[in-house]
Amino acid sequence: MEEVKNNTGQNLGIAALITAIVTFVIAVIPCVGLIAIIPGIIAIILASVGMSQAARNNSPRGVLIAGLIIAIIAVLISLSQIFVAGKIAQKANKWPGDIQNIINDVQDNVVKDLEDANISIKVESNGDKVEINTSTGKKNQEKTLENLEGIDTLKNDTIQKKK
Amino acid sequence: MKVSVRNEPYLFINLIFAGVILLVIIYSGIFSPEKNNYPVACIHEKLTGEQCVSCGLSHSFSLILRGRIAEAYQWNLNGMRVFIFFVSQLILRIVFSVYYLKIQDTRKQLIIVDCIGSGIIFLISFWPFILSIIKSIL
Questions:
Q1: In chain B, which residues have their Cβ closer than 8 Å to the Cβ of A25?
Q2: Measured between CA atoms, how close is B12 to chain A, in angstroms?
Q3: How confident is the model at residue B87 (pLDDT cuts 50, 70, 90)?
Q4: Does the beta-carbon distance from B20 to A77 stay under 8 Å?
Q5: What is the pTM of this model?
Q6: Tens of pLDDT along A78-93?
Q7: B-chain residue closest to A33, CA distance
Q8: Using CA atoms, how far apart are residues A91 and A22, in angstroms rounded to an integer?
Q9: What pLDDT score does A91 carry?
Q10: Mean of the pLDDT values across residues A6-17?
Q11: Given CB atoms, is B119 within the 8 Å cutoff of chain A?
Q12: DSSP letter string over chain B?
């Protein structure tokens, strides 16, 4: 009995092949290469659906396989653009360095804020007011420490033995 | 003889590619290097602050279309070879389609020649970009 072949999945195959080739060209251009992941995945889906349809109806799969292979290669090239970005950043000594600088700046600001923090507590009750002001200012603390050190701390306060 | 493009996948693919290339040329013609109003920005430049090997390609295409070749080279050294790829592909799509319709006995050979030839032209034109990717990975 003669085998009947039809063209099921061929339209999807052509769509997949066109998308895959366009994706391939886009993927190779570093400026827009990363974007090519999206049409690349679309091409893979189209080719896969077409393949399953073709397998069910015993139709030719040449175009579908071509589309699928080109789309997979295009997606891989597109993903490799991440390496290109990394290389550029490494070359320029940027990116990781910038992030490190931002972290350092934030850290410095937080420490500075904590050092100069002023605390004020106000309590009001039946017309009576109580206000407590205190500061954790680093300079003030240093001044206090200096004042304390100014007092003769080396004063001999040991109890002398009676002769 | 009437030919339906829908029944001829090769012709359909050629037609779509010719359309895509025409869109690229129209894009280069509409957006001007003076106004610097290109909608597509380099992702690498945005991420790293540094220019990549394909930066300035749109400017270069626009300048080539306007006949300012020397300026085009200043924007991107590879602009001309990529532009030649697109133009050559546009011409090849038309020529191969006509050939496909006129000589029906050698259709299979024509498609094979087209695939190999276009592949080689693609490699030559995009070689600097491919090289930069290979260098980055290795």
A1: 122, 126
A2: 8
A3: very high
A4: no
A5: 0.67
A6: 888 877 777 776 666 6
A7: B43
A8: 30
A9: 67
A10: 81
A11: no
A12: ----GGG-HHHHHHHHHHHHHHHHHHHHHHS-TTTT--S---HHHHHHSS--TTTTHHHHHHHHHTT-HHHHHHH-TTHHHHHHHHHHHHHHHHHHHHHHHH--TTHHHHHHHHHHHHHHHHHHHHHHHHHHHHHHH-
Whether the CB of B116 is below 8 Å from some CB of chain A: the reply is no
CB contact B12 to A (< 8 Å): yes
Q: What is the mean pLDDT of residues B39-58?
A: 80
Q: How confident is the model at residue B83 (pLDDT cuts 50, 70, 90)?
A: very high
- What the block records as the tokens of A5 is 């072949």
Residue of chain B with shortest Cα separation from A16: B13
Q: What are the residue boundaries of the structural domains of chain A, listed by start?
A: 10-96, 109-150
Residues 6+ apart with CB under 8 A from A92: B48, B49, B50
By Cβ distance, the residue of A17, A31, A80 closest to B52 is A31
Give this complex's ipTM: 0.80
